[in-house]
Specification:
37% helix, binds zinc ion, Urease, subunit C, domain 1, 7-stranded mixed beta sheet, 13 helices, 9-stranded parallel beta sheet, TIM Barrel, alpha/beta, single chain
């Protein structure tokens, strides 16, 4: 731990300014001041009176961005055997019901956020249970844990045990937005209708209005499973799933749409026009046998995409494992997946000062063990190494939050 407000980190650095332009720089001295990178020097240029920590042969990389997960499902990860809708009924809803008890919520949030951080995630977009006051508990834990988070409790009018009048949801949300949203560049609020089937058209429209008026994020699921889509089209008398959200004003440039496996061609055009983000959740899609997102074709169409761990259908918060799984699904070059998990994720969340090792950017890093081989081979090593985690340190805002001993 370096106590000073100004210090240097000496390391190799890997970052990904563009999807196909990975950048590997050896022997950099990063000046960090008040939580930001303020200079990039050669190690021999570091002034002798300023504290410096030499991390070599380790590599610094921008911290991982996970744009779709459920901290509340941490304890029911990996419950195999069912497709989406019965899986929700059997495992997820009963577990989320337990979050009525805020002391239980606090315990699970501590476990979940510590786990994410230990794996190198420094910015997460998470959905909570349908209890609005869990958000305050979650943000208090985030505050202590130290990462950045975009959180929302899910809006649900059914099943009935979760139902809450729309006016009540709106007034809760307004209070929380006023208190938390944008605070310290670390706490952000998302309006989060769980998915179309949990809400009426009136509830979705209210959520859309609120997001527009307050300028906050929208976080939801879309087109994950064919049975779900059929039921949405029937219930909303709509010609497509995305039309249901668009009518409600929920497709914005700050909207995260998890899955999108079955979005049709004209829906993709609509999502592109609205500049919404499709969050690719490869582990969860395969776990529930929902289907596979043709992500490269989305990218080719100019749609904004990002990666999500989607715990608990995804069985791990570890973004290196999500990258691994995305690679197995489509064999995209690893550097492109690292882009998605760092700079691409930051841009998808409209946070342009995150995700690069550059002067003026926040000092949010994951530190990865060094190794033999070319730089592209190192990416493979970090993704496919089985025996031990390559993560040896995590820093957010210039503060060490996890060290080798703890991860
Ligand atoms: Zn999800």
């Amino acid at each position: 731990m370096i106590p000073s407000e100004r210090f240097f980190l000496i390391a190799h650095a890997a970052d990904f300014p563009e999807p196909d332009a990975p950048r590997f720089r050896r022997d950099l001295a990063l000046e960090v001041r008040n939580g930001k990178i303020t200079g990039l020097l050669r190690p021999e240029q570091v002034p002798p009176d300023i504290p410096a920590m030499d991390l070599r042969p380790a590599w610094i990389m921008p911290g991982f961005v996970d744009l779709h997960t459920h901290p509340v499902q941490h304890r029911v990860r990996g419950r195999a055997g069912l497709p989406l809708l019965p899986w929700l009924e059997r495992y997820v809803f009963p577990e989320e019901k337990r979050f009525e008890d805020l002391s239980y919520a606090e315990i699970v949030f501590r476990e979940a956020f510590a786990r994410m951080l230990g794996h190198g995630t420094t910015l997460v977009a998470g959905l909570l249970s349908a209890h609005p006051d869990v958000l305050d508990v979650a943000f208090e834990v985030v505050k202590e844990t130290g990462l950045r988070a975009i959180l929302g409790w899910v809006w649900m009018e059914e099943p009935e045990d979760f139902a809450r009048p729309v006016e009540e949801m709106i007034s809760f949300a307004r209070r929380q937005i006023a208190f938390w949203h944008g605070r310290e560049d670390r706490f952000f609020f998302a309006v989060a209708p769980r998915f179309a089937l949990s809400c009426s058209p009136g509830c979705l429209a209210a959520a859309g209005n609120l997001a527009r008026e307050e300028g906050v994020f929208v976080h939801t699921h879309i087109s994950e499973n064919p049975d779900e889509i059929r039921e949405v089209l029937r219930r909303f008398h709509a010609s497509s799933y995305s039309e249901v959200y668009d009518r409600a004003g929920l497709l914005t440039d700050r909207t995260f749409l998890a899955h999108g496996v079955y979005l049709w061609a004209r829906e993709l055009d609509l999502v592109r026009e609205r500049r919404s983000v499709v969050v690719h959740c490869p582990t969860a899609n395969d776990f529930l046998h929902s289907g596979r997102l043709p992500r490269q074709s989305l990218r080719a169409r100019g749609i904004r995409t990002a990666l999500g761990s989607d715990v608990g259908a995804g069985w791990t918060f570890n973004m290196l494992h999500v990258i691994r799984h995305a690679y197995l699904v489509e064999r995209e070059p690893l550097h492109r997946l690292f882009y998605d998990a760092t700079r691409g994720g930051a841009l998808a969340a409209s946070m342009d000062r995150l995700g690069l090792v550059e002067s003026g950017f926040f000092a949010d890093f994951v530190v990865l063990r060094g190794g033999e081989g070319t730089e592209e081979e190192l990416l493979s090593l970090w993704v496919f190494e089985e025996e031990r985690s390559p993560v040896v340190g995590v820093m957010v805002n210039g503060r060490w939050l996890a060290h080798e001993a703890a991860v």
